[in-house]
Structure formats: C-alpha cells, structure tokens
Design a protein that fits this description.
mainly alpha
Length: 157
C-alpha cells in the first residue's frame, strides 16, 4: 500500500455486505424515475401535494404584508414587494436564524410563502427600503415562530 491509498471498508467473509454480514438494502441498479423523464419541478410537486391534502397556507400573512407593502396606485412605480423580498432574502434569513436558532430552511419556507403571497396581491414598497427591511425582519421572525408553533413545519410529503 502506497501513501495516499485509501483503505477499503471491511467486508464479510463471503465478500458481500458489511463486516457484520448484512447485505445492502438496495442491490438493484434500476432507476425508478430517471431525472430526464421528470416533467415537474419540486415546487410544483409539493404545491400539488399541499392542495391534495388540504394543506393550503391561510391568508394570515395578508394583514401584516398590507401594513408594510401596498397595492395602492400611488405606489405603482415602486419596486414590487416580491422583488424586494427576493433581494433581501439571504441576509434576512441569516439574521432571523442567528437570533432565533431556527434552521434557515424553515425560515425560507415561510419567506417563500410570503413572497408568493406578495406576488398574488401585487404589493409594492410603500415605505423607504431600510424601514421595510427592518420591519420585514421583525415580521418574518414572528411569522416563523407562529409557523413552528402551529405545526406548519409538518408538510405532507
């Protein structure tokens, strides 16, 4: 054996399975759903599952989102709320995670729903960006905590 060579994992006496004599649970190389044959995105898949199992997100974000953003004609020239939230998504998600200890993945689930709802409501920035960022960070923290405590993190697969 030369320097840099890796040591092979221990095998059972018959050369199959591991050192405890167990065989691997999957021995077939058959592909069930080859990637090129998939026509739906994961987003579409889970949206369909939520609809099927009745796990639609309630409209409880609307009141808070409308406090921060607006669909009024005088703000029609402003950046859309969805664009703004997409732009600040990563730093806000990290900040909420660092202060709450909640996984970024969980925070991102709530954030994605809020961005989608802003799109549906055609909301736009109605306050200066710094104010919107600060207030949205607080809003996201509260909504993420509500999401966790309501069991919203248990999405049917």
């Amino acid at each position: 054996m030369n320097a840099g060579d890796t040591i092979p994992p221990p095998r059972s006496a018959d050369g199959h399975g591991d050192r405890f004599g167990r065989t691997p649970p999957v021995t077939s190389t058959e592909e069930l759903d080859p990637l090129p044959s998939l026509k739906r995105t994961l987003r579409q898949h889970y949206k369909r599952k939520r609809r099927h199992y009745g796990i639609e997100y309630p409209r409880f974000y609307d009141r808070d989102l409308r406090r921060l953003f607006s669909d009024a004609p005088e703000f029609a020239q402003n950046m859309t709320a969805a664009q703004f939230l997409t732009r600040i998504r990563k730093p806000v998600r990290k900040m909420v995670a660092s202060w709450t200890g909640i996984y970024q993945y969980t925070i991102d689930q709530v954030l994605e729903e809020m961005i989608e709802r802003c799109r549906q409501l055609n909301l736009r920035l109605a306050v200066p960006e710094e104010q919107a960022r600060l207030e949205f960070t607080v809003l996201l923290t509260v909504q993420t905590m509500n999401y966790l405590h309501s069991g919203g993190h248990r999405v049917a697969l």
